Amino acid sequence: MASEDRDMGEKTSPRQPHFLNKSELGDENPDSVKKWWWRSLGGAIATLSVAGGSVLGIWQPLEQIAYRGLFHLRGSINWDERVALIVIDDASLRELGRFPWPRKQYTKLVNKLSSAEASVVVMDVLMPESSPDDGQLAAAMLRQGRVVLAQGWDATGAALRPTPVLRESAIALGHVSNSPDTDGITRKVSPQAQGVPILGITGLRVYALTKESVKLPDMNRPLWVNWQGSMRQIPQYSFAAVLQGKVPASVFKGKIVLVGATAIGLDPINTPFDGHPPASGVHLHAAVVNNILQQNYLQIIDERSLLVYLLLGGLVLNCSLSVWNAKQQVIAVASLCSGWVMLSLLLLHTGYLIPIATPLVLFGLTAISLSVQERLKMKAQLQRIEGQQQQRRLYDSLTGLPNRALFQERLQLAVERSQEWEDDLFAVCLLDLDRFKVINESLGHTVGDQLLVAIAHRLCSIMRPIDTVARLGGDEFTILLEDIHDLSDATRVAEDINSALAAPFHLNGYEIFVTTSIGIAVNSSVGQEENSKCDLLRDADIALYQAKAQGGGRYVVFDASVQKDAIALLQLETDLRLAIGALINTPSTISEFIVYYQPIVSLSTGKITGFEALVRWQHPRRGIVYPGDFIPVAEETGLIAHLDWWVMGEACRQVRAWQKQFSSNNPLTIGINLSSRQFDQSDMVERIDEIIRDTGLESSSLKLEITETCLLENAEKAIAHFEQLKALGIKLAIDDFGTGYSSLDRLHRLPIDILKIDRSFVNSRSDETDKWEIVRTIIMLARNLGLDVVAEGVETADQLFQLKQLQCDYGQGYFFSKPVDAMAAEALLVSQFQ
């Protein structure tokens, strides 16, 4: 937080580290500085005028004219062959009657396209009113399986969605909103509105489920349309002609087929190529689909960058032109204008749209300002830090910050002052850069030194003058915050520091990100009588250690419980090492760990088909310790793999015993999580095979679960391991599906059998339609890929009802049973098999 946000005393300019430069050594000529500023005045005036006009929108009409002209200069480019249009044109209206048509016409069309094996059917037709033909159309849509319907909003903002029966039959909805610019031309669209993707993007998402993957644009930024040419040049087929069989079915096979109105007066839009007569909404969505398929939608320069470019360009242009005569200036400006137009045209060919009129105005205004401007006088003075040379012994030679000696001197003064004034509070913040050693060793000490200097500058920029920022050595900094009101002032400074260092550092061509761990000690942390600089530095150091132990990138405030927590965490780690060591060294002894089992239930029969194995720790003093308390410690210390192998062996042995006790045509299965540590072991497959053989469990009864996160981190290794496990006959599942952003292409390549839907989607109310739509999509995806689906976190009858409606295969959660020990699990089986 900047100094103006903290009421912690007087707010003036911060102390800054001091570095010598040429100007300090007297090499700068003040007269040359004056001349440079004077020459820059005209460019500054022109630039500010243009920038101000740009902010106020004065140049927008000129840019709109230039936009249309630029597209006409470029001409038409080819449309993607994967896109086809079926249009409701004037001929179709004459043949089929007045619009809107009965739904049976669309039913016929969907049936035609289904027979033609169209990949996706995208309907740019609003259907908010119920019709007697809705049932037939819905049935046709279900048979086709990939029909996207349109959604809009009326003038009051009310949603115009398809009727419920049609909405349920459509695979997805897409919005058809259009926001033309003031000149009536549509230049950009919103990829999503009120959470609903635009129609074209929705169609592409469905297309990606069955065809090749498609890289979608940023959904939170406007998509600028790269108009291919006049809409009359798009391959499009009359609605009536398609129904009458005059268009070969092969035309639509495997394609994205967009259906919409192009007849005059129906859904008109203006494009750079089409205004009289206009194009139609379906052309807009076709252009969006085409742009994304070919990845040639327009990239633009944002307004902030434009202002920066205008500022720099104006100054450079002004300095360059000021040394030439009038004739040379005219030639130069004319050359710049023509060159800029050519550059704009060239960039448009490559998918980039840059402003045209605004730079041309800048060139003209700069040339005009040179003829009237006066020489600007400006005095440049460099401020000195008084006595810097005399105090070198108290300052760090690299960063210019106070060194350890000066910091301890100021800290001692603060301690003495607090002993005189009882309510005087101050704090010590000890900073240590996370993973600085890696940066230093990989990029070199030169870059490391530059990084330390840059960090020093950022720290000083957010401190008050009365605060002291010092470098103790290496990558360790410390800050003395004086005259604070309470602890919250110190924590706000720590947050400010983390925010200031979050932005990347650009050094020697490298982009470097750093985080810092911060320990905070306030002079009230210890008794007033015992306050000393050593106490505070020690306390801050203990808090710093805790911050690093928690993963770094955070701050910790020292208090007595910090030491207790550190001791407790160390004791927990010691107990865990002893308990897991007993598993490794004396496996025949009674273990402190217990395998718990949570049933997996068939939603069609209500029967238990298997279990997922979980682990609990029966601590001799603490009692039951849940995984959330000891698994992170086991992962950090590397003990997790030993525990996981033990759990796998115990679970397989127990399920094999139940299979013998409760014989069935469908033997019980056991699901076991594979940790990333196990996944990294080269002999993982061999050890699993050994456990199967030792326990006598059929390999088909073992289901191994791995999270999406682990898959993303070990993509190629996952495929290799999965193929080996599949060769053994083991079932494979992706756990917590939907939370790790799996690539659908990668999912298709993995030889998996099961998707487990994460509980965050399942554990929802029935009115949370967005989450249930995600569940529906996952189930549909799994069905298309031939996979079973297990829904985790089923806790209510309503959730069970929703899952049954969606035809989910299996469920798991507290509605059926919480995780139980082997005896309780066996009782559940006895009840089922009686």
TrEMBL record:
It comes from the Bacteria. Keywords: Membrane, Transmembrane, Transmembrane helix. Residues 424-560 form the GGDEF domain. SUPFAM superfamilies: EAL domain-like, Nucleotide cyclase. It holds the Pfam family GGDEF. Residues 1-30 are annotated as: Disordered. Residues 1-13 have a biased composition (Basic and acidic residues). InterPro entries: CHASE2 (IPR007890), Cyclic-di-GMP_PDE-like (IPR050706), EAL_dom (IPR001633), EAL_sf (IPR035919), GGDEF_dom (IPR000160), Nucleotide_cyclase (IPR029787), Rev_trsase/Diguanyl_cyclase (IPR043128). Gene3D superfamilies: 3.30.70.270, EAL domain. Residues 569-833 form the EAL domain. The chain crosses the membrane at residues 36-59, 306-324, 330-348, 353-372. SMART domains: CHASE2, EAL, GGDEF. Coiled coil: none annotated. PANTHER family: CYCLIC DI-GMP PHOSPHODIESTERASE PDEF, SIGNALING PROTEIN YKOW. This is EAL domain-containing protein.
